[in-house]
Amino acid sequence: MSWKETAEPVLTRMPGVERPEGHVPFRRKLGWTAGVLVLYFFLTNVFIYGLASGGGNDAFGQFRTILAGGQGTVLQLGIGPIVTASIVLQLLGGADLLGLDTQSNPRDQVLYQGLQKLLVVVMCVLTGLPMVFAGGFLPADPQLAAQLGIGLAGLKWLMFAQVLVGGLLILFMDEVISKWGVGSGIGLFIIAGISQRLIGGFFGVPGLTRNPGFFYNWYTILTGQQQLGAVLSTQGLLNLLIQPGQLLFLFTTVAIFAVVVYAESVRVEIPLSHARVKGARGRFPVKLIYASVLPMILVRALQANIQFLGRILFSQTGNANNAIELFGTAMPWLGVYTRSGAGTAEPVGGFFYYLAPIYSYQDWMWFLGTTTNPPSMIMARVFVDLFIMVVGGAIFAIFWVETADMGPEATAQQIQNSGMQIPGFRQSPGVIEKVLERYIPQVTVIGGALVGLLAVMANMLGTIGAVSGTGLLLTVSITYKLYEEIAEEQLMEMHPMMRQVFGD
């Protein structure tokens, strides 16, 4: 008996959101999307009942901007479990260990979706347990535990239940948007969180936001409340480019917007014609960023899980040199940590230090005195981050294209099913596939590596609102694709016959 026959009774009964039976009007899709976003913002402000004052340390640290959610809220886990489950499935699918035909077999499609949901539940449990029960991440309030009479352990289990429910709510909200709304829930949650920080980075005012924004800083500079100093001096130049002037951050933010929009417009267009409708022609675009920037989420989520493991190990450490301790022995080669201004443990040496991404200019500009590590360690960390993002971006882009049915074979079958063909070639999926194989594999690798390089460079220079280069890159690209999808939906509404050509 195969694993599919054994697991089928469980996987086919996983709860889910029912698909619409027919076409969903565009206005209704916008309504569902807006409703889920409002619910998301509401839940990011619902704090976990039983959490001690202070909220604890963020287990995800700087990854919070791309993993969404909110520290200390019921959406503590964010999209982390969904992305981690996707990583596991892509690795298993890439190694052909699942044996599922998700392109043409409806039964295998149901099993794949059920397996994905089951893995998300498992990841919610595996991620939520150490967050609640390991020291420092989500501390329980001992006074409330005494009042309720359930003890500290009982209160922690109550907090874990809230974290688990929040993780499952994210899963179903993502599914609602994917089936009834516009775009994907994961993308919209990332846009929502980063847009908040970006707006605060531009328009923040002391007293209303944690840090003053770009425009407020320049208001105080122009009115003489802050002094930049002599611009030709080293300190004056730093004040102009970094703080409080932030011109370097502004340049990086604008450059990311421009580069991503340009890269999204670079494409190879394969001409198509309809086999049954004379004069009906179209083009299939193979974009430079063919796999989109979503594989970057997978790479960063993998790094986030590695850093989360390091923080868990460090939380159990009690030695004076702040090194990770295993079996009673300090292991500084594995990781040495220090507390950041927000109280989050950050690696400053060892294995976990070299695997930590470059978050901002402060992590590598040793000549500004922002870090005490020697230049050799810093440059080694930069090289490792570049290698992981460029190579990992290319690999996960390949996995993403195959699992999302965007590869040459699946795309050729979709074109064939729509009644289209390439002019001058025989109408056959095999012929279309051979033409697509000239472009899709190469563009997928180049686009994945390019996005990884852009993400690291943007992180190194810094952005407005400290949203991280990766987060800004994701936001711009997802927003651009969302705009394209909205334009396509409007076209379908204006011309209903188009749905018969492209599929209802």
Could you describe the largest sheet, including whether it forms a barrel? 3 strands, antiparallel
Low-pLDDT regions: 500-504
* SSE order: HHHHHHHHHHHEEHEEEEHHHEHHHH
Q: Strand pairing plus helix content: what structural class?
A: mainly alpha
Quick tags:
504 residues; mainly alpha; three-stranded antiparallel sheet; two-stranded antiparallel ribbon; 19 helices; disordered C terminus
Structure overview:
The two termini are 38 Å apart. The longest helix has 30 residues, at 151-180. The protein contains 19 helices and seven strands. A three-stranded antiparallel β-sheet has the order 2-1-7, sandwiched between helices. It has a two-stranded antiparallel sheet with strand order 3-4. A hairpin with a 5-residue loop joins strand 5 and strand 6 (345-349). Helix 4 (80-94) packs across helix 5. The protein is mainly α and 504 residues long. 58% of the residues lie in helices and 6% in strands.
Write the layout of secondary structure elements.
Elements: H1 3-11, H2 26-43, H3 64-67, H4 80-94, H5 106-133, H6 142-148, H7 151-180, H8 185-203, H9 214-222, H10 234-241, H11 247-265, E1 267-274, E2 281-287, H12 294-315, E3 325-326, E4 329-330, E5 336-339, E6 345-349, H13 351-354, H14 375-403, H15 408-417, E7 420-421, H16 429-436, H17 440-461, H18 469-494, H19 497-502
Antiparallel strand pairs: 1-2, 1-7, 3-4, 5-6
